[in-house]
Design brief:
single chain, 5 helices, flat, mainly alpha, 116 residues
């Protein structure tokens, strides 16, 4: 599960570099329904408590350095896991493509046979 979270972090960072995804995110954030939902979320007591705790943590240079090191490590792990997953998916797709081509190549030869 930790690897999946790291992969999700790496994918998020990658997606944030994609201008098309960022345009879509900006459109979503301008939607009144989204804004109403976010207002409801930010008014939640647990959310406010979490934000206050985060602010306190960010004011402590030692804790910030620790958080940064953890995030850097998780991002690196996630990038490695994401690269492995992308490679495996590409290999699977290539293998399936070869199998499909072999089946297609075999069909014309079998179609020309007269079994009567």
């Amino acid at each position: 599960m930790a690897q999946m979270n790291s992969m999700m972090l790496a994918q998020l960072m990658k997606d944030m570099q994609d201008p098309e995804i960022m345009r879509e995110a900006q459109k979503m954030m301008q939607d009144p329904a989204f804004q109403a939902h976010m207002k409801k979320v930010t008014e939640n007591a647990q959310f406010k408590q979490h934000i206050e705790q985060t602010k306190k943590t960010m004011q402590d240079p030692k804790k910030m350095k620790e958080m940064e090191e953890v995030m850097t490590k998780k991002l690196k792990e996630g990038q490695e896991a994401l690269a492995e997953a992308e490679k495996a998916a590409a290999e699977k797709k290539e293998k399936e493509g070869k199998e499909d081509k072999e089946e297609e190549d075999a069909k014309p030869a079998a179609a020309g046979l007269n079994l009567n």
